[in-house]
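Reopening this one. Same input as before:
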Amino acid sequence: SPSDKIINLKLGRNVIGRYAPSSKADIQIDTPDRNVLSREHAVIDVKEMNGKYIYKFSLYKERVNETKVAGKKIAYGDALYLKPGDIIELPSVIMFFKEPDRDETTF
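Same output, byte for byte:
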């Protein structure tokens, strides 16, 4: 069943991956299907520029299962800037990107 879990990103590098004792991911997701989401799967880099936050999505490593952002398949080496409302499709997990209100942003 879907869960409405909110994940807050920190300034800098945020590694997303599957929950596992050996995972180095900052954001670990417990998935029902083992081994489809990598322990370290994707990265969202958060930077501040001119008072605004920029969110850059990329894959953590070359060999990961299919991942899409806003319907576009992402390949290793691609960098995509996230926009509010973007849907991030990871194996077994769908995430909706929402930029926090200015007063919600805490790093």
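So the earlier flakiness isn't reproducible anymore. For the record, The chain has a mean pLDDT of 89.
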